[in-house]
Amino acid sequence: MSETIKFTIDGKECQGTKGQLLVDAAADNGVYIPVLCHMRDLIPAGSCRMCTVKVNGRNMAACTTPAEEGMAVENNTPEFLDIRKAIVEMLFVEGNHFCPACEKSGNCDLQALGYKYQMMVPRFPYAFERREIDATTPKIFLERNRCIFCKRCVRVIKDEEGRSIFAFKGRGTTLEINIDKKLAATMTDEMAQQAMDICPVGCILKKEIGFVTPIGQRKYDTMPIGSDIENNHQ
Amino acid sequence: MSKPIIATTSLAGCFGCHMAILDIDARILQLIDLVEFNKSPIDDIKTFTKECDIGIIEGGCCNSENIHVLKEFRKHCKILISLGECAIMGGLPALRNGIDVKECIEEAYLKGPTVGRNTERILPNDEELPMILDKVYPCHEIVKIDYYLPGCPPKADLIWAAVVALVTGDELNIPYELVKFD
Q1: Which of A184, B48, B100, B153 could covalently link to B20 via disulfide, CB atoms 3.0 to 4.6 Å apart?
Q2: Closest residue on chain A to B149 (Cα)
Q3: Contact criterion met (CB < 8 Å) for B180 and A115
């Protein structure tokens, strides 16, 4: 049987199993630690750093750090609220995030984190880089202007033989998300929908349908991101 | 005490944010009890005739005239507010950012599928026309902006709450639903 451990987040006593990722253990205790790249049961990428928390005095990514007995975690401190806001702002200026024209608006995790941390304007200058769109595959628009390099699609969307349909190409400033044209041609509607749903921004869009949910009824129109986790354990 | 004076303008915007100001509906009667308007499309005063307390800016800066107007606002207003996505981040006009101006102009006047007859290949180059900038700039990259109200357009309730709080000095509590980027 797995070993039960105790730890605290902002002073709140929490329980988890030894080795469980801190971000998941926190969620099980009703504590929301914001994520963009992380998904439960997926090998962690640790790429977005949204989940940065302080563990025993050190800054750690909660999605790559296993929960351990006696950990003292700082999560919702003014310091981390500002760090996370800064990360959201950096992601906003680095890509071209035109919320008013985006089909994912209202259902977008990045935007929802902007709301959560009350981003009114990024403190950094906008990069406005030109990125190419790939609309050559039958079911998917790849809107690279909005990619935040979370690698969710690469890790999740695979064909029957386990091959990733999405992949990164290049390094550093030339890094971009790509879609394998042959494998993409075999994608079902369900796979395309799943790819769009797991994308935390509006980079992966399913073709032929958009703006289905009216404004006011979308995922984050009235409920702040993370409130499902926080409300489950009140 | 005299009433606070508000000026507004639309730079590279669509006037949607000004429409959102009018969306306060009947509260506009309370507004005129609360403030006085100076240079603004709302009262059609074209030039500053007084020093103003609050300047509300819609739209980013896409040409030399936008820069001129924005700097005038900074000079004549104590507080500047960026109203809406275009003022804050360039908005839809900024979709051209990252693309060469020459390429944009040629697409618009020569090559684009909606270009009609332009057999003389005329590109707008009259000295009366403001010069187009290399890209669309958010207002705060040109002058200091004091406050930001996001939205496309910002919700009337948000504009109302913010202006009233600013004028009365009351604390501003904005519900989650009011601040949206779209």
Answers
A1: B153
A2: A120
A3: yes
Cα A225 to its chain centre, rounded Å, is 11
pLDDT given for residue A232 in this prediction: 78
Our CA dihedral for B65, B66, B67, B72, rounded to 10 degrees, sits at: 90
Closest-approach residue (CA) in chain A for B154: A100
Q: Which residue in this structure is represented by tokens 């329980």?
A: A15
d(CA B145, CA B140): 5
For residue B148, give the chain A residue with the closest CA. Answer: A120
Tell me if B92 and A106 make a contact (CB, 8 A cut-off): no
User: What is the C-alpha separation between A157 and B49, in angstroms, rounded?
Assistant: 62
Token pair recorded at residue B8: 């507004």
Tokens of B16: 């949607």
The complex's ipTM works out to: 0.92
Level-2 CATH architecture, domain A97-206: 2-Layer Sandwich (3.30)
Helix/strand number for chain A, H first, E second: 7, 10
**CA separation, residue A91 to residues A96, A146, A149, A223, B5 (Å):** 9, 9, 10, 22, 37
Q: Does domain A4-76 have CATH number 3.10.20.740?
A: yes
Q: Read off the pLDDT of residues A130-162 as tens digits, 9 standing for 90 and up.
A: 999 999 999 999 999 999 999 999 999 999 999
Beta-strand runs (E) in chain A: 4-9, 12-17, 52-55, 58-61, 72-74, 133-134, 140-143, 166-169, 176-179, 204-206
What does each C-alpha distance from A139 to A136, A153, A188, A191, A194 come to in angstroms?
9, 15, 8, 9, 12
* Residue B120 included in any domain: no
**Distance between A75 CA and the closest CA of chain B, angstroms:** 21
